[in-house]
Amino acid sequence: MENSNSYSPYSSSSVDSTKPSPSESSVNLSLSLTFPSTSSQRETSQDWPPIKPRLRDTLKSLRLRQRGYNTALFVKVYMEGVPIGRKLDLSTFSGYKSLLENLSHMFDTSVICGTRDRKHHVLTYQDKDGDWMMVGDIPWDMFLETVRRLKITRPERC
Amino acid sequence: MDRRFPFKVLEHIFSFVDSNEDRNSVSLVCKSWFETERRTRKRVFVGNCYAVSPLKVARRFPKMRSLTLKGKPHFADYNLVPDGWGGYAWPWIEAMAARRPLLEEIRLKRMVVTDECLEKIAASFRDFKTLVLTSCEGFSTDGIAAIASTCRKLRDLELRECIVDDLGGDWLSYFPETSTSLVSLDFSCLDSEVKLSDLERLLSRSPNLKSLKLNRSVTLDVLESLLRRAPQLVELGTGSFSDELDPEEIAKLTKALSELKQLKSLSGLWDLLPEYIPLLYSVCPRLTSLNLSYATVQMPDLIDLLSRCSKLQKLWVMDLIEDKGLKTVALCCKELRELRVFPSGADLDETDVTLTEQGLVSVSEGCKKLESVLYFCVQFTNAALVSIAKNRPNFRCFRLCVMEPFAPDYRTQQPLDEGFKAIVEKCKDLRRLSVSGLLTDKAFEYIGVHAKKLRMLSIAFAGDSDLMLHHLLSGCQSLKKLEIRDCPFGDTALLENAAKLETMRSLWMSSCFVSFGACKQLSQKMPRLNVEVIDEHPPKTRPDSSPVERIYIYRTVAGPRLDTPEFVWTIHKSPEVGVSRLSIR
């Protein structure tokens, strides 16, 4: 068994002297020892500490929720008459205006909420009681709490 | 004179040999034993899908009924292996479908499984019974539907922590009305909602169902209706446990849970609300396994729950349990064999989560049968490790993750060398070890000297020099899997101990100081090792002294693999060829 006191081909001094020891922060070669030492680095690091992706995501949403941030809120969106729906992350929108803009763009038509208009598509939503309601009546934050899915209806229906 | 046992006698004797390790030894004795063994092996295990060709395996074991395969390196679980690396199940499924149509069980871990694979399985194996996919990816719910609809004798369908292209919950409706053979169903990793009526009907006609793991979309208000139809369950993974229930619903659910007289294992419990903990009181006394990884419950509520679980053998929980909660576990859960404590990340928010090394010390004192630990903690001490080792010399698996890289003993500021020395000295049966914190080469000298039964070792941010690797490769006799990240050594130890690598399944090194030249030398020296370099940002020129990002070295009789993506280079045996990316699209 190697006695680490005697000469050893592996002692640090014989190792390439351009290699930094862990305490040095600057790195000479294209290799970088990126160890997540500060809290903020650990927070954004995808591979440390070693926990599996699903648990990592769950914990991330948990902590965001505890801090009061909205986490991802995916809901299904259907356009009446079109069998295949889309999925939308509502937490990325700041309010009704940006939601409508995005939907209009996504479905390539003009989508509005509120007033019944024979010309435009009207946006409705299913709330957590299962009822279908007009989008736009309640404050945006409250809407995010209760919305389950969205439907873009044909104008005459409303 | 022919002194050999007749084939029939040998065959009968070998039918009592279950362990594949023993069977591997048996097959090395002589040619007739090799032949007899291979004709009688029913359960085939291949720890690295690239170590041998599917065709060879199919030909060697004509009576194969069960196949277990592992693909990607373990560190793929933590995002250290880029997407597209490999681990494709298709060549195996194709080979078995053509040659071993009587195959009944397929278990895959960390492999890429496509819908095509699943459809092939459904179409080719008429007696197919068991599909268990762990940490796999590449398929959609359409593939699952194919299995459900076609495999008439399906008993087990388990998707454990897979990444699935979730096209909706319709797959569940593909189980035919005549299907009554299900024993275990695990779809906890899927996101979409399944139709309640489909699930209810499936449960009603599956009297043999012992294990059911729902996904998060199954809300609490429907749980009662499901449990009523499956009171014989031994393992239950609930869906979300946070929806609002009215008092009548609560009463009904409490009753349904208390009717599960065989229930031994409980998991799921997403977002478990403290007010619902009393619902679980009736099952606690019988539980042997409890997974609270997704239950973000605080310490007082955890104590409330765990103090009733006197038969508990396996506990997975978040660090919200704190030292105080672990003290309760030490007092109440005397049968505990396995403990995993995961980081909730509360320490990053500077909230007070008081989980320290003391928690693990308490459990090691109180739970005399404890043999397997995974513990995440911000910092640790040598004294704690020494106590733990003294208390529990029966550890078989000890994984400590000190989350602060290079963190020394916070009381003495010393490296954690002495602590881990105690662990490997006292725990003579240690099979698996993960080390962390500030560690010098000395720690690895101790591991090399003492950890004679160690098979798997994981290291991150440790050591001083090549000596560290040399100690391990020259010392640990039973070492099969070594994975290292961010450690400051490289070439010398690797080349000096090249022969050792052929006795191991694999070696992974990332963010270490291994040079390209050393990789070439190693590959040329060792004909039966695949030396693969993973470089997502390859340099324009590659002089021998340039470092490589990651290397994965494994023994194989199948030669270099032909399915490498553009960021993986297999180093060739002959110096003239050098390095190439052999790939067949």
UniProtKB/TrEMBL annotation, chain A:
Keywords linked to the UniProt accession: Auxin signaling pathway, Nucleus, Repressor, Transcription, Transcription regulation
Keyword flag Transmembrane: no
GO cellular component, one term: nucleus
The UniProt record lists the keyword Cell cycle: no
Composition bias, Low complexity: 1-40
Superkingdom of the organism of origin: Eukaryota
Annotated PB1 domain residues: 72-157
Subcellular localization, as worded in the UniProt entry: Nucleus
GO biological process: auxin-activated signaling pathway; regulation of DNA-templated transcription
Disordered: annotated span: 1-52
Coiled-coil regions, chain positions: none
Any Pfam family matching the protein: AUX_IAA
Alphabetical list of SUPFAM superfamilies matching this protein: CAD & PB1 domains
Protein family (similarity comment): Belongs to the Aux/IAA family.
Its job: Aux/IAA proteins are short-lived transcriptional factors that function as repressors of early auxin response genes at low auxin concentrations.
PANTHER family listed in its UniProt record: AUXIN-RESPONSIVE PROTEIN IAA17 (PTHR31734), AUXIN-RESPONSIVE PROTEIN IAA31 (PTHR31734:SF216)
Quaternary structure annotation from Swiss-Prot or TrEMBL: Homodimers and heterodimers.
The name this protein goes by in its record: Auxin-responsive protein
Naturally occurring in which organism (per UniProt): Brassica campestris (Field mustard)
Automatic annotation (TrEMBL), chain B:
Gene Ontology terms: biological process: auxin-activated signaling pathway; pollen maturation; SCF-dependent proteasomal ubiquitin-dependent protein catabolic process
CDD domains: F-box_AtTIR1-like (cd22159)
Pathway: Protein modification; protein ubiquitination
Organism annotation: Brassica campestris
Cellular localization per UniProt: Nucleus
Domain F-box: 5-46
Protein name, per record: F-box domain-containing protein
Alphabetic keyword roster: Auxin signaling pathway, Developmental protein, Nucleus, Ubl conjugation pathway
Pfam family name, one: Transp_inhibit
GO molecular function, one term: auxin binding
Cellular component, GO annotation: nucleus; SCF ubiquitin ligase complex
Major localisation: nucleus
Listed PANTHER family: F-BOX DOMAIN-CONTAINING PROTEIN, F-BOX/TPR REPEAT PROTEIN POF3
